[in-house]
Amino acid sequence: MLLSAKRAIIATCGIAACVILVSFNRLRLVTAASQRSTEAWGGLQPHWTTEQEEPRFAYVQYATDINYLCNAIMNFVRLDRYGTHFDRVLIHPRDWAEPGDSREQIALSRIRSQYPHVQLRPVEVLSTSAGDPTWHKSLTKFHAFALTDYTRVLVFDSDSMVLNNMDHCFLAPLAPVAVPRAYWLHDASSSSSSIKDQILASHVMLIEPNQRTFERILAEARSSGAFDMEVLNALFADSAMILPHRRYALLTGEFRTKDHRHYLSEDPDAEWNATAEVSRAYLVHFSDWPLPKPWLPRSPEQWAAALPACGDGEEDAERPDRPRCADRVMWTRFYEDYDRDRREVCGPLGMTGES
């Protein structure tokens, strides 16, 4: 009897200790999240952004190969550079976290050591067999909807490059999904075009993680065999909150065209100014087909063919608010900045063949 009583007391104490520990960790996380919000917005507590006790925010990147892993860490470093306050979460294939000597496993081990503030989340890769193999694993980004320990996350493709602090995005009104429109697919000249017919972009998403939403996405992806953009539009075309594409969905290809009606559709009277648009943008997405993505080899001929035009006309003349041939200057700078960051960030991690 005495022994049984002692065992009961020990078990009770053990359970109590576990409860206290869990409560302490939860309080520590909530307090840390609250402190980061206070630091980001000068004491403002954005309670309207969540129905939970305290908001927890994160920037999310996903990677399914060594190049996208490099890009993701480059973007986290740029977020550090711009003084953002919230968590960084990296979604990656589960087998990268296992012991091994693959490039990805070695790089992830180094990331864990050199960037301990980056939260690593191993997942099962989601893929489709349809269409271009380049995008087969793009569905993996939807694992961000399963990050239910956060109240809101900003997830963007890692073939984008961060241009500024985006902490303010987390202050947006409650919405399960907020995305820009794929403005480059919209026919601005068509009088019959309707807003409800415009396609949503999926390369940047402000979302409220939710397990049921995640399961709906999985079911749609498996039944349709579609890519991420098609899945997003099938489920959220009528309900998504719209982010302004002019700030969050800038494409590098925009600097290679002279027709900016689609991009400037929010303000038809605006004049295109490459320098001003870059200074206002928060993200730029590398999209210059047939020029390869910036981490892939390219020939001098491909580069020369892709360079934005630079002529002697008024539109390319130097002005007080922009240099001569501003489109070419800004576009080239994106690639130069990318190459520099790749050497400085990914080289020491063994992801580029340089160290």
Automatic annotation (TrEMBL):
Superkingdom to which the source organism belongs: Eukaryota
Keywords associated with the record: Transferase
Entry GO MF terms: transferase activity
Annotated protein name in UniProt: Glycosyltransferase family 8 protein
The species this protein was found in: Thermothelomyces thermophilus (strain ATCC 42464 / BCRC 31852 / DSM 1799) (Sporotrichum thermophile)
